[in-house]
Amino acid sequence: MSAFVVMGVSGCGKSKIGQGFARAIGGSFFDGDDLHPEENIAKMSRGEPLNDSDREPWLDRVGMRLKDASEPTVIACSALKRAYRERIADRAGGPVTFLYLEGTRDVLSSRMKLREGHFMPLALLDSQLETLEPPEPDELSVKASIDQTPDQVVAELLAGIRRKM
Question: Residue 34: pLDDT above 80?
């Protein structure tokens, strides 16, 4: 089984890239936002950042979805801290490759301003950037810049995975 989490702060394109990546590998895609407890969505909708205890049940659900998968699976999940990524991998019961989408605050905020109907307000971008701990070299991860087309981002991620194999 291949387990992937497309990670990064809000507005980096996790869902769009995750869908494209899943298609490219012949796998399934799940949006981690759909796994949030209702309380988390309500809190973020009010412009309140989540704390670690808010995130725990969500991270557990992400990991369990990966564990229960019978085919290559890609989940979009911010996974902002190393401890969150470790928790997901622990619950998944096996290796998880984190696909880190990196972008500048200017690019991220301009993308968030264009989104319609998403519960995450632009006001929370700074708190996410402050929380973000990019993957370290010893973590199972591949990085791609979001300052390119979605197809180019997917291609960069696929090339990065091939280099790691």
Answer: yes
pLDDT at 11: 78
On the CB side of 114, how many CA atoms lie within 13 Å of its CA? Answer: 9
How crowded is the C-beta side of 2, counted as CA atoms within 13 Å?
A: 13
CB neighbours of 76 closer than 8 A, spacing ≥ 6? 5, 6, 14, 15, 17, 18, 29, 30, 31, 32, 33
Question: In the chain, what are the domains?
Answer: 3-164 (3.40.50.300)
Pairing of strands 97-102, 141-145: parallel
Contacts of 28 (CB under 8 A, 6+ apart): 22, 69, 71, 72, 73, 74
Residues 6+ apart with CB under 8 A from 14: 6, 7, 8, 32, 76, 77, 78, 101
Burial class (CB in 10 A: 0-12, 13-18, 19+), 113: exposed
pLDDT computed for residue 49 by the predictor: 78
Instruction: Inform me whether the pLDDT recorded for 14 exceeds 70.
Output: yes
Q: Which residues pair with 7 in a beta bridge?
A: 100
